[in-house]
């Protein structure tokens, strides 16, 4: 053992003498690069004979070819030979050691009173290189070098992980024997394969040799995969034997020793990529905190027989766990010896596990086990694709628990040295709760509400019903049912239907409508009811609502329906883009509505009739909608107090809206502010029958006639009349004493409207000055009304003359047709004046007998009667 017959030492200027030796026979290309500017070579030989061998033939063969000899052995009878070449190199040309000028290598700070110890700090800002002594040449013998890497500059909330690696196979080689490598085996050795008395490199997970050993390396000629500490400190210990033969495994080797690259990775302190020192690799995440997030394999190296568990716990019984992988890869280190079995195995369980090794002791259901490189879990890699290329991840492409716990277990049988797993997965706790009861034979989100008292409800938050769960379209119907004598109070507190839909309050009809008109293929919230069986009344269309201005409504009937429709969802759409939240209450209706104002009494039929509508201290039935049905083959004509409402011309907060049955928007909206003005409304189909474009106009007292229906295929003979008032939206309609009836005086109506606009406090300050101002305003307004009335009267006369002329021509044509067919002509009547019915019956007969124009005679008599 050792070098008993002699040795060679190299001493450098300013460096302490190292008691390591080279001896024996050298072979191959041995180079030594000094660390200083001067070297001293010392050669000592003991008991060496300078005479030739007794066998001249052996002397000629030399030590390499002598039979039975060790090519590295030094025989006492061999002659001593030493041949050296030297060269002086400039530092800037030594790029392999010092790096290129534009990116110089930082080789560490030397520790005083040591031969080769180095300290590296904050390598995230430097090009740190860990090199063996005298790299890239032969390193001295009998050394123990320590390389301490420390990261001190760490961002808040992050953890620094120090990493070393060498992807270049030519820059890592550590001899593990002093005998020549005749077999020329260049594979990297790890762990126990490296002899403790030879050359080796140990990597510690910390700053002392008492820290966990991440890897022990020797030999080489191959790349070195990443070795990562679990914190900001990493210690490498390089040990060389006391003596060695200057004998290399390949005569072509140009680089000796090793060089390792240093990197620093920053990860979130609370992420699963980091295992705190001294703790188990266990992660427990519950829905009590974050509703969704990401989990990933530890970013640092782990020891053999380590198992990492990720337990995802849903707190609420209505929740399940959804997990999908965005990235998954088995990384096998070809430079490391392959393990005898699967080094890394991933298990996925539906439920909680107790032992990974023995699945029989677990009550959880195994959803998957992945070990081989060719067998991977389900991966949704297209979820985060840019822009429109993103693809949603459906439940079939992911893992969804049936219980409240989903567990992942990753077992490292051989640690992370021979192979490791990289994965990134996203988890989400899916709330599958839905309010109300399932609607029989309904869809997955159709619900029915019948409970009292006031309760909250909302749209579903199940992501699998939205675009992010793979759906393109969603429609949920919410039905509220009460007893016949009850009504539903509804309040929508918050809502959102995407970025392109907005709620618009129409001043014309005092209704809430959607900016996209709620058309087919558009996302919207429709609120409707059926005051009569089979007859739907649309109350509102909503998009965006906030709690500072909620939507309020009281039903006319004992049932109400909300249709929540979402269309054209993309891979990013979910319940945060389309939702609503509200509350409902079932209350008792006024007694008058129970006894005298049922749906049958508010359904009007016949050829003509009168009814009263309003919302005030009178009969509460006046605030209920009316359904008017025309006889077969007839149109409907309505004569109403007021004038056609627009966005600016109506000074009261009430509207009379007329709907065609099945329509979602009014065909006419009447402002009931003026009692001396009348509006005439015609049902749909009249326009085509009379070839007159307007469907409603002021002051035209023209009744529909069944003879005008020739060649008209599309018309509506039923209309619905609804009285919309702001008070209804404030849920006071059940108390009729809080309102004024529409039949009140005009001045009272205006005063009530002024009080509503100015507020109760301001309107009560009726001092003398305000009265004078009010009188002046009233006189000014009265003057303007008289002027407008005169202008309207002139315009009315002109329009009436034009219309009468047109109608007379039409009447004469029809009369001629009837004379040819011998069919008697009926006389149009005023459906609002039932006292004239007998008179009109007699007049019909007289007019026909006298051959007079019944239409002009009818107008003359009507003026006389008034």
Automatic annotation (TrEMBL):
Comp. bias regions, Polar residues: 832-841
Matching InterPro entries, A to Z? CUB_dom (IPR000859), DUF7805 (IPR056707), Non-NMDA_GluR_Accessory (IPR053207), Sperma_CUB_dom_sf (IPR035914)
User: Disulphide bridges in this chain?
Assistant: 281-308
List where Basic residues composition bias occurs: 758-783
Give the UniProt keywords, A-Z.
Disulfide bond
**What SUPFAM superfamilies has UniProt attached to this entry?**
Spermadhesin, CUB domain
**Record's Gene3D superfamilies?**
Spermadhesin, CUB domain (2.60.120.290)
Name of this protein? CUB domain-containing protein
């Amino acid at each position: 053992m050792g070098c008993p017959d002699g040795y060679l030492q190299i001493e450098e200027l300013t460096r302490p003498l190292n008691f390591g030796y080279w001896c024996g026979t050298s072979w191959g290309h041995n180079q030594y690069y000094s660390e200083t500017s001067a070297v001293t070579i010392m050669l000592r030989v003991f008991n060496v004979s300078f005479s030739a061998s007794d066998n001249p033939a052996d002397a000629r063969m030399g030590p390499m070819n002598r039979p039975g000899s060790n090519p590295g052995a030094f025989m006492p009878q061999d002659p001593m030979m030493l041949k050296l070449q030297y060269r002086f190199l400039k530092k800037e040309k030594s790029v392999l050691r010092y790096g290129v000028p534009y990116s110089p290598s930082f080789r560490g700070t030397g520790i005083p009173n040591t031969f080769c110890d180095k300290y590296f700090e904050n390598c995230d800002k430097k090009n740190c290189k860990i090199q063996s002594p005298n790299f890239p040449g032969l390193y001295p013998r009998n050394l123990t070098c320590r390389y301490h890497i420390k990261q001190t500059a760490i961002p808040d909330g992050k953890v620094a992980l120090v990493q070393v690696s060498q992807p270049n196979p030519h820059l890592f080689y550590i001899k593990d024997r002093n005998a020549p490598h005749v077999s020329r085996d260049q594979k990297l050795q790890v762990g126990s394969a490296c002899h403790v008395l030879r050359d080796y490199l140990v990597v510690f997970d910390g700053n002392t040799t008492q820290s966990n050993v991440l890897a022990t390396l020797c030999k080489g000629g191959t790349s070195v995969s990443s070795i990562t500490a679990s914190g900001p400190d990493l210690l490498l210990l390089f040990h060389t034997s006391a003596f060695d033969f200057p004998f290399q495994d390949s005569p072509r080797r140009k680089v000796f020793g090793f060089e390792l690259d240093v990197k620093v990775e920053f990860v979130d302190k609370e992420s699963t990529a980091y295992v705190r020192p001294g703790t188990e690799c266990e992660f427990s995440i519950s829905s009590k905190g974050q509703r969704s997030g990401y989990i990933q394999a530890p970013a640092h190296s782990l020891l053999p027989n380590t198992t990492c568990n990720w337990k995802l716990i849903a707190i609420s019984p209505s929740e399940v766990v959804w997990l999908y992988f965005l990235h998954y890869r088995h990384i096998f280190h070809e430079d490391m010896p392959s393990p005898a079995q699967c080094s890394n195995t991933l298990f996925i369980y539906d439920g909680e596990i107790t032992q990974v090794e023995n699945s029989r002791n677990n009550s959880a259901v195994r959803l998957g086990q992945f070990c081989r490189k060719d067998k991977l879990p389900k991966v949704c890699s297209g979820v985060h694709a840019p822009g429109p290329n993103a693809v949603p991840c459906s439940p079939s492409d992911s893992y969804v628990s049936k219980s409240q716990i989903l567990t992942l277990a990753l077992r490292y049988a051989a640690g992370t040295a021979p192979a490791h797993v990289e994965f990134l997965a996203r988890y989400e706790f899916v709330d599958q709760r839905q309010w109300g009861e399932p609607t029989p034979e309904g869809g997955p989100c159709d619900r029915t509400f019948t409970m009292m008292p006031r309760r909250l409800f909302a749209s579903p938050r199940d992501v699998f019903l939205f675009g992010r769960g793979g759906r393109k379209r969603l429609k949920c119907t919410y039905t509220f049912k009460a007893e016949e004598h009850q009504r539903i109070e509804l309040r929508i507190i918050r809502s959102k239907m995407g970025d392109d839909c907005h709620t618009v309050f129409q001043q014309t009809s005092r209704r809430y409508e959607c900016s996209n008109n709620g058309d087919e293929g558009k996302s919207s919230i429709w609120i409707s009811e059926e005051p009569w069986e089979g007859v739907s009344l649309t109350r509102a269309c909503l998009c965006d609502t906030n709690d500072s201005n909620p939507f309020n409504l009281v039903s006319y009937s004992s049932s109400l329906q909300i249709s929540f429709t979402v269309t054209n969802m993309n891979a990013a759409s979910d319940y945060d883009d389309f939702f609503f939240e509200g509350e409902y209450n079932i209350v008792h209706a006024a007694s008058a509505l129970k006894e005298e104002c049922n749906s049958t009494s508010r359904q009007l039929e016949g050829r003509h009739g009168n009814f009263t509508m309003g919302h005030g201290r009178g009969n509460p039935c006046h605030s209920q909608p009316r359904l008017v049905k025309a006889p077969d083959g007839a149109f409907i004509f309505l004569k109403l107090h007021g004038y056609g409402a627009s966005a600016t011309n109506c000074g009261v907060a009430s509207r009379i809206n007329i709907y065609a049955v099945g329509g979602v928007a009014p065909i006419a909206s009447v402002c009931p502010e003026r009692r001396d003005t009348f509006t005439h409304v015609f049902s749909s189909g009249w326009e085509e029958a009379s070839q007159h474009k307007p469907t409603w106009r002021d002051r035209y007292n023209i009744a529909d006639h069944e003879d005008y229906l020739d060649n008209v295929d599309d018309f509506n003979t039923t209309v619905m009349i609804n009285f919309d008032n702001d008070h209804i939206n404030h849920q006071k309609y059940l108390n009729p004493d809080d309102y004024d009836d529409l039949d009140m005086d005009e001045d009272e109506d205006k005063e009530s409207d002024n009080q509503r606009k100015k507020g109760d406090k301001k309107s009560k300050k009726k001092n003398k000055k305000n009265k004078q101002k009010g009188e002046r305003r009233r006189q000014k307004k009265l003057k303007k009304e008289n002027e407008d009335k005169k202008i309207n009267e002139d315009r009315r006369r002109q329009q009436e003359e034009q219309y009468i002329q047109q109608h007379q021509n039409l009447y004469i044509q029809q009369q001629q047709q009837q004379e040819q067919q011998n069919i008697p002509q009926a006389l149009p009547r005023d459906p609002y004046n039932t006292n004239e019915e007998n008179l009109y019956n007699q007049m019909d007969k007289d007019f026909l007998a006298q051959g007079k124009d019944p239409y002009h005679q009818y107008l003359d008599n009507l003026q006389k009667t008034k």
